[in-house]
Amino acid sequence: MQYTQYCDNYDVLSDRASEQLITLIQKKPDATICLATGGTPLLTYRYFVEKINQRRIDIEQVVFVKLDEWVGIPLNSPATCESFLQQHIVQPLDLRPEQLVSFQSKNVNEQECERITEIIARRGGLDLCLLGIGKNGHLGLNEPSEFLEPFCHISVLDEKTRHHDMLKTAANPVTRGITLGLKDILNAKEILLLIAGEGKHDAVEKYLTAIVTTAIPASFLWLHSNVGCLIDSSQYPDK
Ligand code: GLP
């Protein structure tokens, strides 16, 4: 199934996205779910946590996978994707440490990529990958380029990404990231792309043309047969 749904506002989008996560967990209590970080999914995660707690949904067997991480800053720095997921998912849901599979942020190399890839494979792959789109059209930290990498890798960040809001508190400039690759993402059984947040008009417009190009890594999602895309129409109205 491929669908694009315009939601009245960020609140409606976040409510729907959280509901989709919950539906999956109810269908598959040992689901493996990959999560993006950043401003886009923030409210989705709040609603998700609230619903899990209110409805007393058992998430003991669910495993979350961190989509990407900034390289070169300590993992416990408030700027990392790790701190984001700890604060918004792990702590409020009281998850066990092994329920979050996540990249290290320092001294990472090929082995770190292999470690994460193997864990995902052992769990039978990703059941769902929840994504945001970057201001430059990136997906995870797969940056626009002449070519894209299929597998987990260390990427050189685009100028725009180096100034991502999350990095405002980073003690030193961040120029690299570690991320699942395009094929890792496309291998997920289900994909949920959230489009919200400021400054993405150009990237969103190009994404919506459905032309697949390495200039907009998110456009590769058009090759997947089970992608839901929720758009905050208060910012990105249907044309
Ligand atoms: C960062 C994150 C990604 C996220 C993207 C979009 O690169 N590491 O996981 O999808 O930014 O961020 P935002 O939602 O803040 O626009």
Give an account of the 3D structure.
- The protein has 239 residues and is of the alpha/beta class.
- It has a single domain (2-232), classed as Rossmann fold (3-Layer(aba) Sandwich), CATH 3.40.50.
- It is built from seven helices and ten strands.
- The strands form two sheets. Strands 1-10-9-6-2-3-5 form a seven-stranded parallel sheet. It has a three-stranded antiparallel sheet with strand order 4-8-7, with no helix packed on it.
- Strand 9 (190-195), helix 7 and strand 10 (227-232) form a beta-alpha-beta unit.
- Helix 1 packs across helix 2 and helix 2 (42-54) packs parallel to helix 3.
- The relative contact order is 0.19.
- 2-amino-2-deoxy-6-O-phosphono-alpha-D-glucopyranose (GLP) binds at residues 36-40, 67-68, 81, 131-132, 134, 140-141, 161, 164-165, 197.
- 2-amino-2-deoxy-6-O-phosphono-alpha-D-glucopyranose binds next to strand 6.
Q: What integer is the average pLDDT?
A: 97
| Helix coverage percent | 25-40%
How large is the share of residues in beta strands? Answer: 15-25%
Based on CA inertia axes, which overall geometry fits? globular
- In the predicted model, the low-confidence regions spanning at least 5 consecutive residues are none
Q: Which molecules other than protein and nucleic acid are bound?
A: 2-amino-2-deoxy-6-O-phosphono-alpha-D-glucopyranose
**What is the number of independent domains?**
1
How are the strands of the biggest sheet laid out side by side?
1-10-9-6-2-3-5
Structural class: alpha/beta
Please report the first level of CATH classification, the CATH class. Alpha Beta
Q: What is the subunit organization of this protein?
A: single chain
Instruction: Assign the CATH topology.
Output: Rossmann fold
Second CATH tier, the architecture: 3-Layer(aba) Sandwich
What is the first-to-last residue Cα distance? 22 Å
Report the total helices: 7
Computed over alpha carbons, the radius of gyration is 16 Å
| H-E order | EHEHEEHEHEEHEHEHE
User: How many β-strands, per DSSP?
Assistant: 10
For the biggest sheet, the summary is: 7 strands, parallel
